[in-house]
Write a structure and sequence with these properties.
445 residues, mainly alpha, 19 helices, 81% helix, binds beta-D-glucopyranose
Length: 445
């Protein structure tokens, strides 16, 4: 198959859509710096603090549940723009909140928007990308998430002196506004247009997104894969021909969370303090280094995905996460004297391996392996499970440490990693360089 060549306009569309990923990362991380000051101003109990943090994740579960239906019904582009508007609304409420309950509403709305973008951005990116660049383009979403997290740490730091937590959130309005303005010019995805019988508009979209006419051959395939075979309802997911891809996607989405990534992203300063970093500022410095490592490793993965393929990077990434977790728990077990150093190195390598593998490739595979006729609904299910797993892990992590101790908790995550490795090795297909329609033909009989 000849390579389809994208235009500069495709790059523009990718960057504007990826602002959704940035907003995701920004809002999950902004609370970490703001919480201290909010708790002081509203004199919150620790359980109220916990609710404020976890409400975002719960909201995202509801957003994820609605996301596929929204994307299928109104189209990918309007859904993205609507979500940016919801981000602005949620941020406005948080910014102006004068009571704890208003703050909670704002956080729940922001969580809802996060759930929506977690499906909409990878879906949109996968559907506008040419096959040979799809790995990189879809993974720009994960890169944007990691940059969003890092910028939020930085903004938190800027306002830490004055304790201006409202501004910590307010900066999140800028990318959402930018996305609405830039988004006006975005095209709808050709797949959605074909699935909705708008062939002329699909051809126009392709003409703006490609420098050649290689895409012509796939119009019929697209029409075929979206043709009404009475499998567009939720019941379609139960058909035996979809069983393999459905279960595979659910497993990957869950593994991304239950191998423990957010325990490190959210609790790194705590882990470092247990490892003997006495000053809070050292612990925060180490946390920022983890954020930087996450960005760098993800950028490397974006570069490598369409060269090496998904499988090798995923296997390498999960393998590396397991080793890092075992080293970390080993150091806590033997109470090694250089435990602080080992903790920093092993958490860095853990995050780097996540950034190369499960971070970007989860979203990528979820946008690739489902046939167009069930894509919205199957992604909805997988991403909702991802949000739910994120919520549960964040909720129980501190209790797990209390019950099992830090070493056994990380060994538990390593054990889950070993199961994930086995499933990936045995079942994950290589999708590099293939059209979505080709992948569909190979995976569904
Ligand atoms: C995960 C998030 C995580 C982030 C860290 C995302 O892919 O879904 O839960 O916080 O990566 O980079």
């Amino acid at each position: 198959m000849a390579k389809e060549r994208f235009t500069l306009f495709t790059v523009y569309a990718v960057l504007v859509a990826a602002l959704g990923g940035f907003l995701y990362g920004y809002h999950i991380a902004a609370i970490s710096g703001a919480l201290l000051f909010i708790a002081e101003q509203f004199t919150l109990t620790s359980s109220q603090e916990g609710t404020l943090v976890s409400l975002l994740l719960l909201g995202s579960l509801f957003g994820a549940l609605c996301s596929g239906a929204l994307a299928d019904r109104v189209g990918r582009k309007p859904a993205l723009l609507l979500t940016a508007a919801i981000f602005i609304g949620g941020t406005g409420i948080v910014y102006l909140a004068t009571s704890f309950s208003t703050l909670m509403y704002g956080r729940a709305i922001l969580g809802f928007a996060i759930g929506l973008v977690s499906l909409l951005v990878p879906l949109y990116l996968a559907e506008i990308s040419p096959p040979h660049s799809r790995g990189a383009f879809v993974s720009i979403n994960q890169l944007a998430i990691t940059i969003g997290i890092l910028i939020a740490y930085f903004v938190n730091y800027l306002y830490a002196d004055t304790g201006n937590w409202r501004m910590m959130f307010a900066w999140g309005m800028a990318p959402a506004l930018l996305q609405i303005i830039g988004g006006i010019f975005l095209p709808e995805t050709p797949s959605w247009l074909m699935a909705n019988r708008q062939e002329t508009a699909a051809i126009q979209a392709f003409t703006r997104l490609r420098r050649d006419r290689e895409w012509k051959g796939c119009l019929t395939e697209m029409q075929h894969s979206a043709s009404p075979r009475k499998d567009h309802g939720w019941k379609a997911l139960l058909q035996s021909r979809f069983r393999f891809v459905l279960i595979l996607g659910l497993c990957i989405a869950t593994f991304q969370q239950i191998t423990g990534i957010n325990t490190v992203i959210f609790y790194a300063p705590k882990i470092f303090q247990v490892a003997g970093f006495s000053s809070a500022s050292n612990a925060i410095f180490a946390t920022v280094s983890i954020g930087i490592m996450n960005v760098v490793a993800t950028a490397l993965s974006v570069w490598l995905l369409d060269r090496l393929g998904r499988r090798p990077l995923l296997l390498f990434g999960v393998g590396g996460m397991i080793i890092s977790l075992l080293v970390l728990s080993g150091a806590f077990f033997v109470q090694s004297s250089s435990i602080g150093l080992i903790a920093v190195i092993s958490l860095m390598s853990y995050v780097a391996c996540f950034g190369i593998g499960l971070g970007p490739i989860t979203w990528l595979l979820l946008s690739e392996i489902y046939p167009l006729s069930i894509r919205g609904k199957a992604m909805t299910l997988a991403i909702s499970l991802n949000s739910l797993a994120n919520y549960v892990v964040s909720l129980v992590f501190l209790d797990l440490i209390g019950a099992l101790g830090i070493s056994w908790t990380f060994i538990l995550f390593a054990g889950i990693g070993i199961i994930a490795l086995g499933v990936i090795w045995r079942y994950v297909p290589e999708t590099k360089g293939k059209r979505l329609e080709e992948i569909e033909k190979e995976l569904i009989n």
